[in-house]
Design brief:
140 residues, 88% helix, mainly alpha, 4 helices
């Protein structure tokens, strides 16, 4: 897959994320739960096919993944407990915490896109430099 195709795929994912959020505002709790289960399965499948190239990025990703998994497990447990208690205030707090967690994940994604932009431009620069060097060198 070319860099341009990867950027197009990422852009499509972000558009799908926006559509998913918009659609969830008009769905029942059960529909949203089904959507969450589907998204988790999709993310898990994607996670299994992605192989990090840079050690630092991979280490950061592993840390974010572990932290997010722990937070999501904690959140899921709290949500289930609070649902049983019918505690509206706690449910509101959980919703705000979940929204904050989503915002943090989006901030990380934005950072990752910024890093990808630098890497893409570095790759384009390196390719242009290599082409210029090849054009300037005498034919053998």
């Amino acid at each position: 897959m070319t860099l341009s195709e990867q950027i197009d795929a990422l852009q499509a994912k972000v558009a799908d994320l926006k559509s998913s959020l918009d659609a969830s505002r008009h769905e029942t709790n059960e529909q949203i739960k089904a959507r969450v289960a589907s998204a988790r399965a999709k993310a898990k499948a994607a996670e299994e096919t992605v192989h990090g190239q840079a050690d630092q990025a991979q280490t950061q990703w592993q840390s974010v993944k572990a932290d997010t998994s722990a937070k999501m497990a904690e959140l899921q447990g709290r949500i289930e407990r609070k649902r049983e208690e019918h505690d509206a205030k706690a449910a509101e707090d959980d919703a705000e915490w979940a929204e904050d967690n989503a915002a943090a994940a989006l901030d990380y994604a934005a950072w990752a896109v910024d890093q990808a932009e630098v890497a893409v431009l570095d790759a384009a620069d390196a390719r242009a430099w290599a082409a210029a060097r090849a054009a300037a060198s005498p034919s053998s």
